[in-house]
Specification:
single chain, 424 residues, Aspartate Aminotransferase, domain 2, 13% strand, binds pyridoxal-5'-phosphate
Length: 424
């Protein structure tokens, strides 16, 4: 039996794993072209053709709409901006509740707070880690206005049932597909499965332009509201003749021409980059259970193509005999990137525990027009807590720059640590 690296033995790998690099000559050329044009942005906060941005921004939106088969694509400067704009476009305001996943990046929930609404956290599915229709149903109250689903780690949420619930209760659904570009559910792209879907183009996503985002919607009214919110709505509503002024208070969420030009090039690479992620993930999913029966690879539901933003693995402590943290530490010592648990359930953040968001008086939690009774106590989402505290491990090695040999090192390290697990 080989000596574990954590006990002073030689690690499976000494060299770091390759970085994910997708920027190449095509992107450089696109950037130079924009610089040569001297038009780095063309947005004007005035109702005019320039209200919609410059040629690269508009080209990206057309490319995006065509690729994802959505009627409208609205570029923004981050998925965070996209989520905020989507909540605004949905007409959410103080006194409303928005049901959201607790197992996501914080912005999925702050999007509700920004409009003075209350995030209400629904528990997640133990196989795909997205909020479940059952947990959503239990939380619907007269104050519920919207639902934000998150296609976490790249697996689409249960969108069909979620949309049925929304129809029943007249709610708007926003799909946070920041982590799932190219993933599909029954042949339809993640990000196009709700009333609005939000993509991220930040530097650690499958395709990127440094920072950026896109909102997809088939609804023309929502599309115009999104365009308004993106670009100082208040100044454009009068010339445009907009009558519904709810949330027509705008921000500057505009993307630059350089980012848009890069994003258009990256979009062409998406299918190829995603295929490599899927191949890498499939290799791990086939290899791991045979050598470590206490590990469960990510479940891929029928009709789903997974986006594998990261590769989530469930760890069964009872079967393994040692806590997850020890196993992860031993893998790290062998040179394998692996982390415990993803983000803490969002409701455990100080903002929710102390109910302080805007100003010192606890707005929006203390807003007199809010008639609900939101609960942020530990234990409200037991599956999420179980995943975070005990079961979930994540690795980011499933990407296009990782070779078969790199993936085999992961398997070798898991096998080595598993063989000596009793010594941890
Ligand atoms: C699920 C999710 N939503 C939203 C965001 C925010 O994306 P951005 O960094 O583009 O604002 C992220 C970013 O990591 C994310 O993972």
């Amino acid at each position: 039996m080989e000596n574990l690296a954590i006990k002073g033995g030689s690690p499976v790998r000494k060299e770091p794993f390759p970085k994910y690099v997708t920027i190449g000559e095509e992107e450089k050329k696109a950037v130079i072209e924009v610089l040569d044009s001297t038009v780095l942005s063309k947005f004007l906060a005035k109702w005019s053709p320039d209200f919609f941005g410059g040629p690269k921004v508009q080209a990206l939106e057309q490319d995006w709409a065509k690729y994802f088969k959505t009627k409208n694509a609205i570029s923004v400067n981050s998925a965070t901006s996209g989520l905020y704009a989507a909540v605004g476009a949905a007409g959410v305001g103080p006194g409303d509740e928005v049901i959201v996943s607790p197992y996501t990046m914080s912005a999925s929930a702050t999007a509700a707070l920004i409009y003075g609404a209350i995030p209400v956290f629904a528990d997640i599915d133990p196989e795909i880690f997205c909020i479940t229709p059952e947990s959503i149903r239990k939380l619907i109250t007269p104050s519920t206005k919207a639902i934000i689903t998150v296609d976490i780690f790249g697996h689409p949420a249960d969108m069909k049932e979620t949309m049925e619930i929304a129809d029943e209760h007249d709610l708007i659904v926003i799909e946070d597909a920041a982590q799932a570009p190219g993933a599909t559910l029954n042949g339809k792209y993640a990000g196009t499965l709700a009333h609005m879907g939000v993509f991220s183009l930040n530097y650690h996503k499958t395709i990127h332009c440094g920072e950026g985002g896109v909102i997809a919607t088939d609804d023309d009214v929502l599309a115009e509201r999104l365009q308004m919110i993106r670009n100082h709505a208040e100044g454009a509503v009068k010339p445009r003749g907009v009558k519904d002024l709810v949330n027509m208070v705008g921000w500057n969420y505009r993307m630059t021409e350089i980012e848009a030009a890069i994003a258009s090039v990256q979009l062409k690479k998406l299918a190829g980059l995603l295929k490599k992620r899927i191949d890498a993930a499939d290799f791990l999913s086939k290899s791991l259970p045979g050598i470590a029966p206490f590990l469960t690879p990510p479940k891929v539901r029928k009709g789903v193509r997974h986006g594998y933003y990261v590769y989530p693995i469930r760890y069964d402590k009872k079967k393994a005999g040692v806590p997850r943290e020890k196993f992860v530490e031993a893998l790290n010592a062998e040179g394998i990137p692996m982390t415990n648990g993803y983000t803490e359930p969002i409701y455990l953040e100080p903002l929710y525990q102390q109910r302080i968001a805007f100003g010192k008086d606890g707005f929006p939690f203390t807003y007199p027009g809010y008639h609900g009774k939101v609960d942020y106590n530990p234990g409200i989402c037991p599956v999420c807590e179980q995943m975070y505290y005990r079961e979930l491990m994540l690795t980011d090695v499933c990407h296009a720059n990782v070779s078969h040999k790199d993936l085999k090192d992961v398997v070798t390290a898991v096998e080595k640590v598993t063989d000596s697990i009793g010594r941890l």
